Every structure is written in C-alpha cells, then in structure tokens.
Amino acid sequence: MSARILVVDDVIPNVKILEAKLSVEYYDVETAYNGPDALELAYNSPPDLILLDVMMPQMDGFEVCRRLKKDPRTAHIPVIMVTALSEATDRVQGLEAGADDFLTKPVDDIALFARVKSLLRLKMMMDEFRLREETSSDLGVINTSEEEEVAIRHARILLIDDNEYSVDQITKVYDEEYDVVVERNMDEAQALLRGSDFDLVVISLDAAENDPLRLCSRIRTFEETRQLPILTLVDEVDKDKLMKGLEIGISDYVMRPIDINELIVRTRTQILRKQYQDRLRHNYHRSMELAVTDSLTGLYNRRYMTNHLEALLQRAKMDYKPVSVLIMDIDFFKNVNDTHGHDVGDDVIQGFASRIGVGVRGVDLACRYGGEEFVVVMPDTDLSIASGVSERLRRQIADQSFKDSKGMIELDITCSIGVTVSREQEDAATLLKRADEALYAAKRDGRNRVVVNSGNVAA
Questions:
Q1: When comparing pLDDT for 346 and 127, which is higher?
Q2: Helix, strand, coil shares of the chain as percentages rounded to 5?
Q3: Distance CA 73, CA 88 (A)
Q4: Which end of the chain, N or C, is surrounded by fewer C-beta atoms within 10 Å?
Q5: Can you give the residue ranges of the GGDEF domain (predicted)?
Q6: Beta strands in 191-322 (DSSP E)
Q7: Which residues make Cβ contacts (< 8 Å) with residue 339, sequence separation at least 6?
Q8: Distance spanning both ends of the chain, measured CA to CA
C-alpha cells in the first residue's frame, strides 16, 4: 500500500531516521522541523498520515494536532504522536487533542509499521466513503450540510474478559454512560456479536482458556462485524500479542495497569469514529437508492461513475496514485435477446452484474455503462493489477453457465474486456475512450479476451 507520510520533529537526526525507515518500505516521505511548517504542508498538500513529535519549540505537537483536527481539510488525516513522554496523562492529552495513537521513543520498528499500516487501511476506506458522499452531494442527491454532528447516543459495548477484577473495574467506568454486556466465553461472544448491534467490543488479550486473537480475526472475517471497532486490553509483557493483533486489524489498545482516563478517552474516540462511519455508510446507501444506481442490476449508473471518476482523477493529480479503468461487454448479447427474449436478456445482465460485484474489491467502483456494457473503476491500482483482476473476471464469467430466473434456460456467456490506466493531466472522457479502444480491439480479435491499453498501443 503506497502512501505519503509527513514526519514532523525539530531534531534533524530523528527525522532522518524515520524518513529512512519509511522510505525502505516504499512510502513517500515529506519532512518538517516545526509546527507552523507542518501545518502549511498539511494544508497545501494533505498527506495520508502524520508522524508528529510532541516536544517542539514555537508550537508543540498537541497544538499542531488540535489545529489539524479542527480544519476540515486535514481533520481526517491520521496522526501518530512520537514522543519521549510515556506518562498516561500525556497520552490522554494527546488523544483529547485528536491523536490517533502514540509511539514512545526510541520507536520500535514493528510497532511503527503495524500502526502505520493499520491507520492507512482505515483512512483508505474512510476516504472512499467520504469521496462517494461528496460525489452524491455534488449531484444534489443528499445535503450533507444538514447532517447532525456525530454524538454518542445509547452506545452499546461488549466486554470480553474472564478476569473478575478487571470486569468490575471496567464496568464501573462504563455503566454511567454506556450499555455494557459482559461475556467471558469466546464462542458465546462471537454469537452475540453476529446477532446484535454493538458500537464497540473490548477484548482482554490475556484470557486464560481461549485465544482472544482468534476471536479478533473472526470479527474481521464476518460481514456483520467487519467494521466494528476492537479495543484490546494488553499486559506490558504481551507486546508480541499486541503486534499480531494490530496486523489482524484491532482498532486500539490500552496497556495494563489500566489508566481510567485513558480508557475513557480511547473508548469515546472509537465509538465516535464508529458512529461517523455509520453516518457515512447511511448517506452512501441512501444516495445510491435515490439517484445513482441502475435499477436492473443495483450497480452504480453511468452518471455517478463519470462524476466519481473525475473526482478520483483530480485527487490522483495531487497524490500521483494511478487510477485503472476496465470496460466489459457481453459477447453476442443481441443473440440472447433475439433468441430468448428480453426477459432472459435481463436475467443474464443481472447475473453478469452479480459476478462483477463479487469479483472486485471493496474500494473499486462497478457500474452499468449502458446496455450490456459495464465499467469498473479501480483507485490506487496500476495496470498489472488491473489486468490481473480483468482476467479473473473474464474466467468467472466464462466458466459457469447463466440461468434464467425460471431455471428453464442455461446459457454459456463470455465477455470482452478493455483495460487502461490514467496518465497525468487526463480527464475521465479521455481515459474511458482509451479503455473503449482496448475493448474494441478485444472484440475485433475474437472476443472472450482481455486487451490492455497502456496509453500507447493496445496489446
């Protein structure tokens, strides 16, 4: 996952060390040596993540973080504070300023990259939902200015811990503000999570009889709980477990012995984030229903795709991330309508769309372009990955027969696909035209194939 990271520290060797470590992992690194310069860089060219020192002259890291989080242009950039301060009160102050996490100097490489990857994954998903919300707002489908600010209301927490003392301590903190359910058995907890609507799950990683990390993994596996925030309670000696948990996808952690104020702040942060995500998803689904989906397939329509692609290309000009596009066309579809009628043709289109939806990633955007043509827009994706996805989709279409809704007719269907990738200073129309040229080449050369157009000559 490529990303731009801003490193801020007034000590030059500290900056150079972090810059070197991140560059080795193929991140693009920008640097600043004081708070004002960091803010200017963040406002003019927002990075994907900020590593921010706390103790700096002119303006300390807490103040920089507060300003970043108050400005709409930078409010959603993850901030990791890197500091020699290790007291719980310092962590609480940073979290209240809006920091997403803390790393203590000297920085452990495993912890650094685990947190960076985790926060970048979250930002990538949130950016996609925000971009779709902006697209819907531009189309006049929803009015985001009328949305209420996110606030904690009747938040539900599932606490999973088999230590009686720990359970008593935490429930006393939570009882006044949250609806808390306590479960000591991992299997029962999993059933509860899949059958109920929780805002946060708090899991102790030192369970005596079960494997809490296995449960964390399952939470991230199931569709019902994939986006549920996970806050873990970790002993100082269990850092290996914590690193593994961060790789799996836990959202945050509190070290034992538990500082009550830190627990309160981290809990509130995770619930606010969850409710904000829920609002974005609600707006996204509502806008799709109103104006931007194709009524037959449920995929995005051409109007939405074009607007969304333009927005992606504008963003790509700033962060230099490629946008790939593929156009798919059902081979000999006219014969289906002429032979079996338009009802069967509609069934084929619906089945085709369903296979596209299953075959692409969550961040990709699939749409019905018109008739039997479909488009998939793939952000932050180079041509080699896009062509691989295209070939997989082509095989999925060809390898399994299509049936009509009555189960009376079975048809072998194939498709042709044209693929291309964005170039600098390019608009959506030009990019789509180049993909269409590749599609035309695929149909001319015999159909049921993928043709790649790198921007020069289709091959």
A1: 346
A2: 50, 20, 30
A3: 30
A4: C
A5: 321-455
A6: 200-204, 230-235, 252-256
A7: none
A8: 27
The whole-number pLDDT of residue 458 equals 42
Residue type, 385: I
Domain ranges of the chain: 4-107, 156-286, 293-453
Checking if the pLDDT of 351 tops 90, the result is yes
Q: Does pTM surpass 0.85?
A: no
Pairwise CA distance, residues 445 & 441, whole Å? 6
**Where do we find the tokens 């507060």?**
66
Both structure tokens of 56: 């700096």
- Mean pLDDT value across residues 174-184: 90
- Find residue 30's DSSP bridge partners: 6
Give the model's pLDDT for residue 13: 93
Sorting pLDDT into bands at 50, 70 and 90, what band is 229? very high
Helix (H) or strand (E) holding 419: strand 415-421
pLDDT value of position 136: 64
Q: For position 439, what pLDDT does the model report?
A: 97
pLDDT in tens, 313-333: 988 888 778 999 999 999 999
Q: What is the pLDDT of residue 33?
A: 96
293-453 CATH? 3.30.70.270
Instruction: Give residues with Cβ within 8 angstroms of 92, minimum separation 6.
Output: 259, 261, 262, 265
CA-based torsion, 300, 302, 307, 312: positive or negative = positive
Q: Do domains 4-107 and 156-286 have the same CATH topology?
A: yes
DSSP state of 177: T
Contact between 139 and 307 under an 8 Å Cβ cutoff? The reply is yes
Closest CA to 125 of 249, 305, 5: 249
Query: Amino acid letter at 265?
Result: V
pLDDT at 147 over 50: no
Residue among 139, 452, 136 nearest 325 (CA): 452
Count, residues in the chain: 459
Specify the fold of 156-286: Rossmann fold (3.40.50)
Q: What are the residue numbers of the active site?
A: 372
Across the beta sheet with 101-104, the strand order is 28-32, 4-8, 49-53, 79-83, 101-104
